[in-house]
Amino acid sequence: MTKILNVLTTLEERRDFNLNDGNNQIIDGSKLVVFPGLIDPHVHFRVPGMEYKEDWITGSRAAFNGGYTTVFDMPNTKPATTTYERLQEKTILINKQIVQSELPLNYRLFFGADKNNFQEIVRVKDQIAGIKIFMGASTGDLLMDDESSMHAVYAIAKAFNLPIALHAEDEQIIRSNTEKYKNETDFKYHSIIRSEAAAVTAVQLVIKLAKIYNVKSYILHLSTKAEIDLIRAAKNENIPVYAETCAHYLFLDNSMYNKLSGLAKMNPPLRSHEDQNYLWEAINDGTIDIIASDHAPHTLSEKEQHLCKCPSGIPGIETTVPLMLTAYKQGRVSLERLESLLYTNAKDLFNLPSSHNLVFANIEDYYLLTNDRLYTKVKWSPFSGMNLTGYPEYIFANNKLFLFKK
Ligand code: DOR
Ligand code: ZN
Fold first, then answer.
1. Above 60 in pLDDT, residue 113?
2. 294 flagged as catalytic
């Protein structure tokens, strides 16, 4: 193994090799590209409380099938991860389930901030990846919709050198739009209610706080041109903001509700084709640092409900890498850029050690994405029916080779 790590130093070299699978069977590397074990810094694996949507047995398998050997889980579980005790309980459950999955998945946990748990953040500060703030309500009951609580959390983050991950949508704007459009039934109103203005207002506040406190602020799931412009300007001023987007904003847009209905409902919502083009530019000019899955599974029957009952979120951990590698084959992004977006930038932001894991994806053969290829418990994807390449086939983790051949 050491040999592979030492020898394959550049992406070009990495494509040109044979790998012994441990049983002295030689794997043909000619169709494969290799990356370090990828990092998905934004998943919702639903433990505790919503295990019928996902748990860490199915979640670990979905992660490996998607090319990830490290995930960061969000705190909007039931109950939310907002106390020291809940963090310990959650950790015990996760560790047991990872053992059952028989896959060596690495993980970190975000800790939820609410308006009353500031002391709890201090108690868990050495155990967590960072603090998660929901500035607008989404799945679960976490919410921080007042500026004074935001200041308090930023002060704690500053004192203990913790990054903050932010769901940046303004709750007041969402609420007033929800009231205004409460009788609408077309899913396209989801994008109108959770408007660009809601996103921009929240991102402006984050940039202001990141500047005042000099705290690393990881702004999740950016979806609009206007937010990107704000972030580019903030980065030019050396304000420590880090930008994430997700594959769904790069491959779906708000014209697709007709076809997908609730399967296209997520927070923040899908935006225009122009926004989408701008996100691709921001990926290639380095304004966007990270592509995460925001893997947020809900069952198909939950997603088939009407607009106001349909929960927001889609599974994505198994489709992000094939989608991005299909885009690479179309000349939309380079392999070097993808390695930064799917691994290096998250590693650096969260101070992870370099990974000794490797993921080998087939970038020559194209397969139809079907629900039965997926390991997620909910077994659906808005991308099913697409012809994609770039599926991970082999994962080398903890000195073992795992086969996920399609
Ligand atoms: O669409 C979303 N789903 N956005 C979120 O912020 C939460 C997530 C979930 O947990 O379902
Ligand atoms: Zn999320």
1. yes
2. yes
Structural domains of the chain in order of their starting residue, each with its CATH number: 2-403 (3.20.20.140)
Ligand 1 contact, 138 CB (< 6 A) = yes
* pTM (whole model) above 0.90: yes
Output the CA–CA distances (angstroms, integers) from residue 239 to 42, 47, 162, 255, in the order listed.
Answer: 22, 34, 16, 35
Q: Looking at the CA of residue 220, tell me the nearest atom of ligand 1.
A: 6
Length of the chain: 406
305-314 pLDDT, tens digit each:
999 999 999 9
Residue 312 near ligand 1, beta carbon < 6 Å: yes
For ligand 1, the distance from its centroid to the CA atom of residue 194, given in whole angstroms, is: 13
Q: Which helix (H) or strand (E) holds 71?
A: strand 68-73
Alpha carbon distance 218, 352 (integer Å): 15
Is the beta carbon of 267 within 6 A of some atom in ligand 1?
yes
Average pLDDT across the chain, whole number? 94
Going through 79-123 in order, the beta strands assigned E by DSSP cover: 106-112
For the record, the structure tokens of 272 come out as 């225009």
Closest CA to 205 of 267, 274, 136: 136
- Closest protein CA for atom 7 of ligand 1: 139
Q: Which residue(s) pair with 165 in the sheet?
A: 132, 218
Closest alpha carbon to 38 in 9, 66, 80: 66
Per DSSP bridges, beta strands 391-397 and 358-362 are antiparallel
* Other C-beta atoms lying within 10 Å of the C-beta of residue 83: 19
Ligand 1 atom with the smallest distance to the CA of 265 is 1
Give alpha helix (H) positions in 188-309. 188-193, 196-213, 225-236, 247-251, 257-260, 273-284, 300-303
Radius of gyration of the chain, Cα coordinates, nearest whole angstrom: 20
266 lines ligand 1 (CB under 6 A): yes
Q: What is the pLDDT of residue 6?
A: 34
Instruction: From the candidates 28, 253, 294, 365, give the one annotated as an active-site residue.
Output: 294
Residue nearest to atom 2 of ligand 1 (CA): 313
